Amino acid sequence: MTYTKPTLINSIKEVTGTVEPHLQQQLGRSWLLWFKESNRYTILESGLKKVLDRFLESRNEEAFYARMHQEEGVEQLDLKVLYQDLTAFLSAAQEAPEKEIADAPAAAFNPDYCTRSEGYTMNGVSFRVHYQNEETLDLIHHIFAHYSEGSATQPQTAFWLYREGGFLYLFQDSVLVQAVNEQMDHYIRGKFLFRVISLVHGLSESDWICTLHASTVVSNESAIMLTGQSGRGKSTLTTLLVSGGFELLADDITPLHAGSLELFYNPSAVSIKKGAFPLVGQHFDTFESCPEVFINAFKGTVKYLPLPPPERLHYPCKAMVLVNYQEGAEAQLRPVEPSEVLQDLIPDSWVSPKPDHARAFMKWLDGLPFYQLTYSSPEGGIEAIRSLTAQP
């Protein structure tokens, strides 16, 4: 009998049941990996993916060293470092992300905290928000202010939003939806928006594959998704595209439906940062009357511009475009590797942890073309995006 010394790989396997990614999909020259236990996605370039495969196929550390030395000529000292790095990578990939939301103390539903309410109707669906004070309502009101109906609405569902003991609580029909430290109020905004989107479309949260941090416009029955880090001109370009004849499907958050694999309407108003006020004001007469809203030190002051809903409430995605505003640059739209777009998009988005949803998400990405748009003039950006919708 031969005794095999336990390795770090075996240790990981004992804890998680596996060290391999649950799903993997080649996208361009890179690979997208999904780890079921942690719902983590990782992008690897092809060369590193090949090394990882050999690592996982090797029965122990010595077998990995022998194979890599024989096939690639890698020296022993370098192999030890590589082995440790791969082990650390797999270990981290299996771990659930650290909780950013502190556990709020258990609290019974207490409607007495909310002495005021506001009603909204959109797409034939009515709901009411009961809130504690104006500061609390401001967390969620501005994106839907154009749908406000004051106290006249007969609601189909109701939300309660209030603070207690340093925590912020969101209830729907007396059932707790989420509770977070009041300093993390953006989580409540996101969860509330998710519930409203589901409500508007007559769906539940389990019907969505993901909500992507992207804006989406429509023209000629084609939906173009615009992604990019905050401050790169994504929402500004979205607004200018609407002034140029496009329809707005979603600003900042775009939901992907599991059943149809189509992008659905997000009824939020478009958030415009202060630096873009003069430009957007040139194209929309109503923009000047939109109130200024201070969000936080990072986002600063914005205005929310309501825009009309699209002719249809969902469309297939034709392309994904990474938006990069660059002062003085000529408009250039070029194909890019999917990894260039996804490396920032996925971490900033919510993706369902269900394996069938993860599989569908990866297959959906595999069917998309990816581009990067660099632009400075509104006209150049609009024409570049229009060229995508004109393609068969």
Quick synopsis:
The chain contains eleven helices and 23 strands. It has 392 residues and is α+β, with helices and mostly antiparallel strands.
Describe what this molecule looks like in 3D.
The protein is an alpha+beta fold. The protein has three domains: 8-94, no CATH class; 111-200, no CATH class; 207-390, Rossmann fold. 31% of the residues lie in helices and 31% in strands. It has helices at residues 8-16, 46-57, 61-72, 76-94, 134-137, 185-200, 234-243, 277-283, 338-345, 355-366, 378-390; strands spanning 23-27, 30-35, 40-45, 116-122, 125-131, 148-150, 157-164, 167-172, 175-181, 208-213, 215-219, 222-227, 247-250, 253-257, 263-264, 270-273, 292-296, 300-305, 314-315, 317-325, 332-335, 350-351, 370-375. The strands form six sheets. A six-stranded mixed β-sheet has the order 6-4-5-7-8-9. It has a six-stranded mixed β-sheet with strand order 13-11-12-20-23-21, sandwiched between helices. α2 crosses α3 (61-72). The relative contact order is 0.12. Residues 1-17 have low confidence and may be disordered.
